[in-house]
Every structure is written in structure tokens, then in C-alpha cells.
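Customer ticket, subject: "Can you confirm the structure for Transcriptional regulator GcvA?"

Message body: Hello, I'm evaluating your service for our small team and ran a test protein. I'd like someone to confirm that this is what the system normally returns, since I don't have a reference to compare against.
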Amino acid sequence: MSQQLPPLNALRAFEAVARHLSFTKAAAELHVTRAAISHQIKFLEDYLGFALVERKNRTIVLSKGAEAALPKLRQAFDYLADAVHLMRNETHREHITVCAAPSFASKWLIPRLPRFSRQHPEIDMQINSNVGLVDADLQQDNRAMDTFFRQNQVDVVIGFGAGQYPGDSVIKLFAVSAVPVCSPALLSAQHPHPLNTPADLAFHTLLHDDTNYVGHPSWSKWLKLQGVEGINANRGLHFNHVSLALDAAVDAQGVLLSIKPLAQADIDAGRLCIPFDLPMPLEHAYYVFRPQSAPLNQRACDVFVEWLLEEAHQNPTPGGLNAH
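Agent reply: Thanks for trying us out. I re-ran your input and got the following:
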């Protein structure tokens, strides 16, 4: 059986007096009168049977017993504070499940999540990276989307598409353009055929991100837009995931046509560059959509979507550059 302890108020009063070596400062910290502090110290001394403080020349000196006990007492208060913090957090914690395509999740969303966690530590998040979420048939079929939200217990979906999602709450996150990206080494004067104009692509390997989604940018469309002829738009290296294609571009294996926000982190880091400032605006864009039925964690969902919009407009990329 644990030993009976004196009231917590008396122990708090003593700890504050010992830390400040002042009754007046301890009273101010605890928002009580100086007389109340004196009363608590006297009560604790009577309970323990020895003096805790001594007054010498208008200063306070701790007794040997008080000095010996003080570190353990402070440690005990720290443990109490931690316990209260844990109880409060567990009581008020919220959880949301966010779905996004693997490329968007890894290249745009995840690098920003530390900011969200710092701003909203009370919200836990599960990221579900599912390439099927950007499938146009699923997004435009109201019954299929309702079934998806319900069966997977998903709260928010970030998808790339036309924005025509009947029956759901839809917000446009941002429009995007496709740009050619490559290693800075391919622009070097030491390269046999440095990239100076789009026509120089004839001497370089074309890299293709063949991730399967509607609205996918293609070299054939970009070359036609720029009026470049005589280049086979299908030749080169093909990859089934944007990360693989970006890695090949960083490794100077060729030139990739990429959605700019997905390549921006590598551009900001100097691993990639844009050889020609000739973006191709895409008809599709990134959207945030949610089911019409309000979830139990409505507040957390609202907070997350609001944060997403702020990131898209204030910090469109990790480096703060515009994603268009």
C-alpha cells in the first residue's frame, strides 16, 4: 500500500518557493497570496516534522532535507505533467485517412506533412497511396466513389482529373503544366550535344513516365506544340512510375517530360533543371474531393483541406516556387 502523501497544493507551493527562493515570486507564479504560500509551507513542515526553509538576512535558504528531496519532487511533477499531456492528447486525438496517387503522395504531399504535423499535432493521419484513385471511370461514377469512400473508410482523396465528380464535394487544388527536365550535365558545353533548343532532343534519349492515368502528358503532344519535327516521340526509355523516370533523369540518362510539381523538389535541389522554358498547360488538374455525407471527424477533415489549399497557394512546392 502506497504511503499517504500531503496535499498537492502544499508540494507545489514548496517547489515554487525552492525554485525562486522567494515566497513573493512563488505566490505570483501560482496566482495566490504570499500568506497562502506561507500557510502551505507551514502545513508541509508540520506534516514532515522538520523545517523546510530558513530565513537569513531577508533571504531564504533550504534545509538539508529540503535540498535532498527537491530533485525527486521536481521529477515527480515532470512525470505528472507528462501523464496529463498523454491523457489530454489521447482524449482529443483525431484521425483522418487521405488517399492520393503514389506519384503525388511521394513527390508533393509527403515532403509537406511535417508542417501539418507541427501545426496540428492532435490529428493522426493515414496515407493510402492507391493508383486506382486517379482512374477517371471511378471518379466520375458517383456510386463507385460512394462505395470506395465507405468500404475503405477514406475521408479525403486527392486526384488528378477533369474535376467532374458528381455527388462529391470538389475543390480544385491547382492546375499544372508539363515541362522537360534533365540533369544539368546535359546542358554543359562539354557535352557532345548540349541541350540548347528543342531540336537538340534528337541527340538525346527521351524518358517516359508511363504511369497509367487520364490526362497523362506525352512527348508527342509537347513536340507538336513546340513545332518540333523529325523526332520519334515514342523512342527512348519507358517507366511505369514517375520516381523511376525522375531517377533516370537525375542520372543524366535522358530528358523527361514531367508534371512540374512532381519534379520540383529535384529542381530546387539542383539535381534537375528545365532546359527550355516551354511549359505545356494540361487540361487536367489536381482536385480534392470528399463524400457528401459528413464524417464523424468532420473538423479534422476541414482542417486538413484548408491546410492543403494554403500549401497549394502559399507553398505550391517545397521550395516555394509556383507549380504552374
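A couple of notes from the result: The longest helix spans residues 64-92. Residues 133-138, 316-324 have pLDDT under 50 and may be disordered. Feel free to reply with more questions.
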